[in-house]
Each structure stands twice: as C-alpha cells, then as structure tokens.
Amino acid sequence: MNKALWAGLMLAILGSLAACQTGKDSAGPSPAPLALEGSAAPVPWKRYVVEPLGVRWPQTDWKSFNNLVQTASPPVGALPKIDGPIAGNAENGKKLVLDRSRGGGCITCHILGNTGSQPGNPGPDLSMIGAQRTPEWLFAQIWEPRLTNPQSFMPPWGTHGVFSVEEVRDMVAFLMTLKTPAEFKSDKENPNKRPAPVETRPNLDPTENPAAFIADKGAAAFRAAGPKGQACIDCHRDPAQAFAVWGAQMPSYEPRLDKVLGVEEFVTRHARATTGGEFPMQSETNLALAIYLRALANGQPIRVDTRSPGATAALARGQALMDKKVGQLNFSCRDCHDPERGGNHWFRGQYVSGLPNLLGHFPTWRTARGEVWDIRKRFQWCNVSVRANELPPDAREYGDIELALTTMNAGRKLSVPGIRH
Amino acid sequence: MADSIKVRAQMQGSGAEVRVLINHPMETGVRKDEKGAVVPAHFIQTLRITHNGNPVLESLWGVGISQNPYLRLKLASAKPGDKIGVAWEDNLGKKDATEVVVQ
Question: Is residue A29 part of a domain?
Fold first, then answer.
C-alpha cells in the first residue's frame, strides 16, 4: 500500500475514534455537583471518647510513632548494653507475658505452655523455648526482633519503649522455664484447632439488625427538604433505579479533588452543593444516608473503576499504605490481615479476618459496640488499636486504602448494612 | 408511626414465630458520657404483645435488658392473616406501637 494513503487511512480511523469518544462523553451524565471547599469531617478532628455500650477509645497521643501520614518511629534499634548474665524475676515475667494492657501480652500471638488461657497463634509456639534458646538470644528477639528477621511483625518491644530492660529480663527468665509442650483441655483452648467464627446472622433481616432503623432514617433524610428548599428526592425521583449499582462502584476517584471519595464523603460534599444539608462524616444523618444509598445496590458485584491515571495512582498509594508499619506496636494492615501473617489467625480470643474478605458489608452494625461503623471508623480503630494516631475520616490516605481494599474485593456481592460482633 | 419497632410474624409449623426488634437505648442510669456525667436512666418499662387484640404477653422490664431489645416468641394459636400488635412504654413516658399481619 502507498505510504501516504496508509497514513491518511490511519488518521481517518483515529479521527473517528476521537469523535466517538467525545460523543460518548457529552451523552453521559454530568458529574455530580460537589462542594470542593472545606473538609467533610469535623475540623480539627477529635478522637471518639465513649461509645453507646461504654467502650472507651484510648486518648493517648502517639505522635512519636508513625501513622499513615507521618514517619516518626525510632529506627531499628541496637540492643542496650547489659552487664553480666541475663537474669530476672520469672514470676514477674509471667505476669508481663499475660498482661493485656501491655500491647495485648505475648499470649496474643504465642502458645506459652500451660500458662494463661486462650492463646493466639500468629507467632510460633513457645512452649519449649526454654530448652531451645539462650537468655541472650531471647533478650535480643524480644527487644528488637527485626535484628534477626527484618520482616518480623512481632512488635519491637524494647526499641518502641513498651517494656523496660528490667521487664524484658523478667520475661526472658520466665521463657527459660518453658520446657514442656502445651496440653489443651479442649480444642477451644487450642488456637490451631479452635474453629473460625462464622457470621451467620441474617444482616438484611430488619428484625435482626438494628442498623435497619438507621437505614429508615436515611430513607427519610433523602425525602426531607434541606436549607435550600430542595430534597434529594426532588432531583432523584427514582433512587432505587438511579442508584441500583452506584453503591457497588464506590469508592471512586474524584479528579476535582484529586482524591478517592467513599459513599460517606460523597454524601457530605454533594449535599452541601445541592440541598445545602450539612452532614459531616460520622454524623448520624451521614451514616443513615450512606447505609440507605449503599443498600440500594445490595446484591450487586463490587466493581470499582481504577482506569484513570488519578485512580491508578491512588490505588498504588493505597497498596503501599497497607504495608506501612504504624504505631507503637508497629503493625501494617497486612501484618494483621494478610493470611501469610496474622490474617485468619487467632490473636488471643480474637479472630482476625484475612484479606481480601474485609468489606462489602459496610457500614455495618457492631453488636459489641452498639452502633454503626462505616469503613473509615473501622480503619480508625485498626490504627488506634496498634497505638497509632488515627486520621480524620475524610483523609486522602483512607480513601486510597479503601480503593485498594475494594479493588481486592471485586466481584463480591454488596450486603449492607452488615452485622458484626 | 412505629419508627422504633420491627416485627416479623411468620407461620412455622402449626403456629407463628414472632420476632421483635426495638430501637431503644435502654440506659441503665449508671453509664457516664464523654464528660463523665451520668447518662440518666431511660428504659422500657412495659412491653405488650397482642394477638387479634387479645393480650398474649405483658412484660415488665428494667435496666437489666440491653440496648435494642430483641424478642422471639411462638404463638401456637396464630394463623395466617391474624394481627399481632406490639407496644412499649418507657420510664420517661415515651411510647410506640405497631401491628403486623401473620404471613
């Protein structure tokens, strides 16, 4: 074929492709009005204090440790200088390895012979450790496990100041007494045999899930006129049809904010721009509308769009953030949720779900908490529980993580509101 | 309007199974709020269930019952189409009631 003719043909094809592209864009829906200014969450963000059933959030400021935005934790530490042989008080050591208030206690991850009850299993069984290791070796492992294994997800108890030199010595003295295999009275005691809990409560049955009352409030809020005189329903006459899949496609990357918006932040910014309603994230009405809207897409497979360059970048950031070690206890999301590490294991009596199956039911009712949690409050608790400062619920980092997690759950069917312990 | 009560009454074998979920804080009067102040007691005192208008259950509740009370009962004599009423009243004089039809 003649070269010029060939080039001409290519141009024509490209031209028609471009036309087709613009044609599709102009025929598609206009982007939803959003208030782009200001925050979607209360400023300054203040940590929750007490929940309806009395659970208190710790109020410590962990500013000297990493969180998802800052890097502040001490570097992998050298061992402190110790004169003479490592000896200590084994009785006190025994108390410390079981002490819940000290990062959960070693029994959270280790079987310790016949000491304590309901041990966990993310770490190796230490029942025979006294016959296997020297006190010096044990001291080093407890003080700074990353010296032996740079990938360790055992907290660096010494470097991060959870235990003092004296206390680590005491624990070493106790571990040296462990020389007999654990015997379990029943499979329930043995974390390697204890059956994984299965959530079977029918979450969509309104007589079983108290979140149904909140969904009702969402339906009512959708119909209530805002300060500008209009209600959501005035622009969206048939929400069940209009939003039949929308909830399963969230979160989504929003180029106007260069950020990933979840359902909750979308509601805040869209209401501000349309009805004039002020529904900050974590407020009752925000959660109610979020449940209502998301539930309209129940049964739909999760499918988030990560094709745009902005979304691709957010996804990559989210994946990296899930590997970031945060808090005094120095855990990344993957340390606890990756099945190769803590995921699908028992942390003492608490079973931690393994990736990817962590969402598709948010916002969810929490029976043990007596309230609804959206996905951002879940992230906040997962931060605070490792002694890291949480971010405000509308933080860009949480959006990135939500996108990464949701992408892993593609195809899973939405079932909202969920119900969890 | 029964904003606070969800009821389901379904035939199961020869009778009906009635399930009730009530949205109520059931405050004991000892819990403290964010500022450390005691949250005043606020709890359901009476719960009545009727079958075609006839009382089948009248229960007196106190602070021992947890938030969002849930109740499940069997009504041996119920038939499809029968009416089941649920009503509560709390210590602050608030009340709510609803009626459903056995399915």
Answer: no
Q: Residue B62 has what pLDDT?
A: 85
Cβ within 8 Å, pair A208-B25: no
Give the mutation candidate from A47, A207, A369 for the B interface (greatest B CB count, under 10 A): A207
Distance from the Cα of B7 to chain A's closest Cα (Å) equals 6
**Number of domains forming the structure of chain A:** 2
Domain harbouring A142, CATH code: 1.10.760.10
- Alpha-carbon gap, residue A289 to A40, rounded angstroms: 15
Interface pTM, i.e. ipTM: 0.75
Decide if A1 is inside a domain: no
CA A403-A409-A415 angle, to 5 degrees, is: 105
Measured CA to CA, the distance from residue A51 to residue B25 in angstroms comes to: 12
Angstrom distances, CA of residue A381 to CA of A7, A73, A246, A393, B32: 59, 19, 27, 11, 21
DSSP state of B103: -
Domain ranges, residue A357: 38-67+198-421
How confident is the model over A111-131, as pLDDT tens digits? 999 999 999 999 999 999 999
Q: Taking CB atoms and an 8 Å limit, are B23 and A210 in contact across chains? A: yes
Answer yes or no: do B25 and A52 touch at CB < 8 A.
Answer: yes
Tell whether A207 lies on the interface with B, counting CB pairs under 8 A. Answer: yes
The pLDDT of residue A15 is above 50: no
Interface test with A, best of B5, B6, B65 (most A CBs within 10 A): B6
- With an 8 Å Cβ cutoff, are A207 and B31 in contact? no
Asked if A280 and A169 sit in the same domain, the reply is no
Specify whether A306 is located in the same domain as A358.
Answer: yes
Smallest Cα distance from A279 to chain B, Å: 21
pLDDT in tens, A26-76: 445 789 999 999 999 999 999 999 998 889 999 999 999 999 999 999 999
A212 touching chain B per CB within 8 A: yes
- Select from A175, A209, A225 the last residue of a domain: A175
* CA atoms of A157 and A163, how far apart (whole Å): 6
Q: Which residue of B has its CA nearest to A211?
A: B23
Residue-range domain boundaries for chain B: 5-101
- Domain limit, last residue, from A121, A141, A175: A175
Query: Are residues A393 and A276 part of one domain?
Result: yes
The Cβ of residue A212 has, within 10 Å, a number of other Cβ atoms equal to: 20
- The answer on A130 and A59 residing in a single domain is no
* A126 and A226 inside one domain: no
Average pLDDT rounded to a whole number, residues A283-309: 97
Q: Which of B103, B95, B101 is nearest to B48 (CA)?
A: B95
Question: Does the beta-carbon distance from A212 to B21 stay under 8 Å?
Answer: yes
Residues 6+ apart with CB under 8 A from A235: A274
Give the CATH class of B5-101.
Answer: mainly beta
Residue A25: predicted pLDDT: 42
Q: Is there a contact between A244 and A296 (Cβ–Cβ < 8 Å)?
A: yes
My answer on whether A221 and A104 are in the same domain is no
